[in-house]
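User: I'm putting together a small comparison set for a docking exercise, and I want a reference complex before I start. The sequence is below, and the ligand is 4'-deoxy-4'-aminopyridoxal-5'-phosphate. Could you produce the 3D structure with the ligand included, as structure tokens?
Assistant: Of course. I'll restate your input first, then give the structure tokens for the complex.
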Amino acid sequence: KNASNRDAHVAKRAILETQALAEVIDLDHGDPTMYEQYWQQMGDKTTVVIPGWKFISYFSDVNNLCWFLEPEFANAIIRLHKLVGNAVTEDRYIVVGTGSTHLFQAVLYAVSPTNASEPINVVSAAPFYSSYPLITDFLKSGLYKWGGDAREFKKNKPYIELVTSPNNPDGLSREPVVNQNHGILIHDLAYYWPQYTSISSSPADHDIMLFTVSKSTGHAGTRLGWAIVKNQEIAKKMTEYIVLSTIGVSKESQLRAAKILQVLADTHEHRNNFKENEAFFDHSYNLMARRWKQLRDAVEKSKLFSLPEFIHGKCAFSGRTFASQPAFAWLKCEGETEDCESFLRHHKILTRSGKHFGESPQYVRISILPRDEIFDQFTDRLSGINFS
Ligand code: PMP
């Protein structure tokens, strides 16, 4: 008995030592480095060379309402939406921003009433993207203020509702939840791409839709997003916000992004030129499918956690029928563990607590988009976590 106690003790010490030596795995941010390998395999096909004399002017297209939008980038955006079928672009205004983060602020400015006696409430159903409350309130605007969980919003007053679909953090498809008719809706469709979820047979056609290269192609560092807007006055005011805050958006970024979006579309529409490369959304779909399988296996093994289940849908873009495989895992610590973030931090896995998303700390959000080796280390470590 003593010997087996000693063995158990030695084994436990070995585990603790391994844990102490183990590297920290940071999955707190949704940094999309997973996409690096695909673009690396493209070699020079997406390389953009810009001579020093080019693109000196502030202006891109003086005939466009959004005069700092590069026509090449605008065309590439339209081509991509036509290819995927995820959003209507005909008779719509496109406004470019430094990431959709910039556009989110531009929209708040553009849609808030200017003559109201108090700031308009900005709400979103919990769990909501953790940056929304921070961005809404950090400058203490007199125009708008964070109003919290949209499901709890019962005031009979004007409001702005953010509808994120698929949602960050839990990956579910969403509809507006406030049941009043004087609301302004903003649809954040950052993840409405066929590697994450099935694309519906009718393209999204909301008043204000936000997209970003960060989560579509993975080029978060390019810092580019675009808004598709129905109403001319709103598009004008958003443009005004961007002019006042940054006098436009980097042309170098837009040209690089234009090239990447064109090549992406070419991988689907001109397969013959890409014998060595898979089409972008096939590659990224397969990668996400493998990662979700690997994650679900690890969760199954450990028995301490649970994940959301998603219903199957037929994707009008790929023809595949599949359940969503979101960019984040919304993981719940089952049993006694009340603070899932610190529990995982103890195992050197950094995640973001549910409390930042207006939810219980029994949940954490975990990025599914790191490089391969980090994701493998993560699932390995997760599957080994048990009650000991
Ligand atoms: N909206 C949602 C729902 C997001 O998850 C993110 C990125 N985490 C953004 C907007 C911001 O993206 P960008 O990099 O374009 O600023």
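The first strand starts at residue 25 and ends at 26. The radius of gyration is 23 Å.
User: Thanks, that's exactly what I needed.
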